Every structure is written in structure tokens, then in C-alpha cells.
Task: inverse folding
């Protein structure tokens, strides 16, 4: 009996090892070398040794390389708030959501630092980043309202969550060595509690 | 002796009564009727019965009709924080700044409501609004650092201020009758303190 021969044809293959991370890395290199606006998808694919078609299997456009994680983040926030104990105060439900998100970034410190450099160099991307933050805060506020939290408490608690995460994340990104993001989030929230208490 | 005759020549005059508010009103009407992107400066000037040249004496471009107050706001925030008593906690310096800004809006409720409608209809203006808020928070954080407040406390207190003001302002704008903005700011800050205290 003959064994079926599996041929591996690079050009036709629909699967490439580590395609997503190769594309991300190539994109970040090019965004930093040439600027985000000056980089094309064709150049990113070429740098990664992949086709444009492969690029578009992973990302809708070159901006999504930087902002593609937003949907997943939002889902984690929302489901963590929904599943917090019924007795949890709004701020505790929000704290649980921030902690639930931290593990997503465990292997992403180098990526986050490079991404930060690219965004800092481009006002359009900075506005997009602010919009991302506003959208995540608004999703948390919705999730709190579904728990029966009234306005303006729901919006305020969600905004406090966004500030807490933003401050912790900025600190995490600013250090060349990856610290424990969860610990930074807890510190940031503790500090915020002291500040609003007038200390 | 002959009395000097003052001639008022509308076409040549460098001064028009209420030019700024006539231009603002004309701009807001057009932004709401046609959309911000579809409105030109020529149309705004014509609607106000003024020249384009007069428009450009008051506003750098059509976006500045909506965002021109940012510089003045920033100055008030910064000087209020600088002049808070040395013993004031960061959150109290920020609260003083928010209270100092409230009187600027006393006669601006109708304007603010129309402006809000225009911004809500245009994603580009929403991003600009987020950017304005971020810039004001960053100016407050700078002012706190000049008082010797360390990081991240300075940034956190400034962000708390931005949230507090944003929540109070949104509530003020949402009501057809102008309430006391200062009172709404104090309520919003009290509520934020309760939330971070886990209540």
C-alpha cells in the first residue's frame, strides 16, 4: 500500500507558522522606521515574507495591527463585571474587570512598548487611542448599568476604572523590564482611593 | 465749532456689534442643518451678515468656533491650582480649579447644548473633544507637579478632575433648563468620593 504524500506548497498554503506575530513585528518595525502614515500593507507583508492576502486574513487594515485587541479587551471587561458577586460594590466589580484583563498582556510587553512609540509619534493614532479608552469605559458603564447601578455612579465608576488601568499601563510600558501589571493596577487603584479621600 | 462727524460704514468697518456671537450662532445653525463637514466659512459669514475676513478675526477656522474656549479654560485651571493654599490636598486644588471654571459657562448653556448636538453627530469632532479633555487633564497634572505633587498622584488627581467636570457638564448640557454648574460639579465629586470608597 502506498502512503499518501502530503505536499507542502508555500505559495498555495493557507497557513503560515506564526503569521500573525510575524506581521505584527514587521508592521511595528516599519511604523517606527518610516512612520505609520508612510507604511503600506504591501510593505508589511513583504517584510514578514508573507502575502498581502495573508495580512488581510488577520487584520482589516494597517491600523488594526495596533488596535485589534480592543474587541477582546471589551469582552473580558464586560463579562468580568457581569459575573462579579451580586454584593460587590461598583468599584469592586470594576477592579475585578481590570484584573481579568491583565493576563492578556503577559507576553505582550515588548509589543506594547513598540506600539507606544508608534502611537506617541502620530496625532491621528493618539486620537484613536483616546477613542479606544472612551469606548472601553462606556462598555464598562453599560455593564454596570445592567447590574442595576444608577447614573452617574455607573459612568463615574467606569471612568475611574479607565484611569486606573491607563495609569498602571503607562507605568508598565514605560519600564524596559516587564513588571507585574496586576500589581501595578492594584497600586494605582489604591493611590486613587487615597487621592479622592483627600490624602 | 463743528462737531466731528462719525460715519459708520458697514462694509469698511473693522468692528461689528456682537460679531463673535453672531458668527457662533450662524455656525451652529449651519452645522446642525447641513453637518459640520458640509459647512464652509463663507456660508457662516454670509448667514451672520458679515465678511469672511471678519470671521477670521475671531476664529482660525470653522472648528475653532467649537473649541476656541480651550485656551481660556486651561489658563483658569492652571492658575487656580497654582493659587490654592499650600496646605491644600491635590484633590482640593483640583476641586478649586473646577469651581473656578464654572462661571465661564454661566451665559453659555444654549451654546453648549447646540455645540453638543453638533459634536455628537460627527466622529472627528468627538475625537477632537476627547483630545481637548486629555489636554486639559494634562495641563492640570503639570500644575500639580509644579506644586510638588509626585507622580502618579498628580496625573490621577488631574484625571479625577477631568472625570468630575465631564460628568457634571454632561448632566448640565443634557437638561433644557440651565442648572447651577458649580453645584453639579460638587455633587459629581462627592459621588466619585463615595464610589472610590466602595459605596
Result:
Amino acid at each position: 500500500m502506498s502512503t499518501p504524500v502530503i505536499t507542502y506548497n508555500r505559495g498555495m498554503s493557507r497557513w503560515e507558522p506564526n503569521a500573525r506575530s510575524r506581521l505584527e513585528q514587521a508592521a511595528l518595525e516599519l511604523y517606527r522606521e518610516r512612520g505609520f502614515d508612510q507604511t503600506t500593507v504591501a510593505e508589511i507583508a513583504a517584510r514578514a515574507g508573507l502575502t498581502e492576502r495573508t495580512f488581510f486574513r488577520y487584520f482589516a487594515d494597517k491600523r488594526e495591527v495596533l488596535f485589534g485587541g480592543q474587541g477582546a479587551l471589551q469582552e473580558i471587561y464586560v463579562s468580568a463585571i457581569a459575573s462579579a458577586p451580586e454584593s460587590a460594590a461598583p468599584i469592586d466589580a470594576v477592579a475585578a474587570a481590570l484584573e481579568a484583563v491583565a493576563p492578556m498582556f503577559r507576553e505582550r510587553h515588548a509589543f506594547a512598548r513598540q506600539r507606544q512609540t508608534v502611537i506617541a509619534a502620530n496625532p491621528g493614532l493618539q486620537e484613536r487611542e483616546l477613542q479606544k479608552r472612551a469606548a472601553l469605559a462606556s462598555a464598562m458603564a453599560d455593564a454596570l448599568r445592567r447590574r442595576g447601578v444608577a447614573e452617574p455612579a455607573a459612568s463615574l465608576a467606569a471612568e475611574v476604572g479607565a484611569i486606573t488601568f491607563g495609569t498602571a499601563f503607562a507605568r508598565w510600558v514605560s519600564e524596559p523590564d516587564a513588571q507585574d501589571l496586576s500589581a501595578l493596577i492594584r497600586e494605582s487603584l489604591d493611590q486613587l482611593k487615597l487621592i479622592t479621600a483627600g490624602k
Summary: Chain A touches chain B at residues 89-92, 126-128, 130-131, 134, 152-153, 155-157, 159-160, 163, 166-167, 171, 188, 191-199 (CB under 8 Å). Chain A has a mean pLDDT of 91. The radius of gyration of chain A is 20 Å. Chain A is about 65% helix and 0% strand.
